[in-house]
Amino acid sequence: MQVQASTKARMGTSDFIDKEVAIKKGESIALVDTTSSTHIISNGTWQGNTAKPFIESGAPVVNNLNFAGNDSKNVGPFNTAGTFQLYCTIHPGMNLTVTVT
Fold it and tell me: Which of 82, 84, 92 is nearest to 44 (CA)?
């Protein structure tokens, strides 16, 4: 049985509604697609219109996590303190910052 993440990062049509979330070490986040839009989430960020895929040391690996619309998936646990970046590979500028304390 998968444990529900208590912290949510909501996604809209082409951007994160919640662009930053803060959690404690050992917690996960729930990525929630609130629309019928497709999203593909990976480690990294957009810088302008250029995708910059990368995985920070200690980050859970998120590799092309697919959302078909109106669904939710957990990412984590985040076991290392720090700041981590996730982005949607198909929507330029769609970035999420996860701060872990």
Answer: 84
Residue written as token pair 């497709």: 38
Query: What residues does each domain of the chain span?
Result: 7-100
Give the chain's mean pLDDT: 95
Work out the burial of residue 5: count CB atoms within 10 Å of its CB; fewer than 13 is exposed, 13-18 middle, 19 or more buried: buried
Model confidence, pTM:
0.94
Q: What fold, for 7-100? A: Immunoglobulin-like (2.60.40)
Summarize pLDDT for 17-50 with one digit per residue, the tens.
Answer: 999 999 999 999 999 999 999 999 999 999 999 9
14 residue type, one letter: S
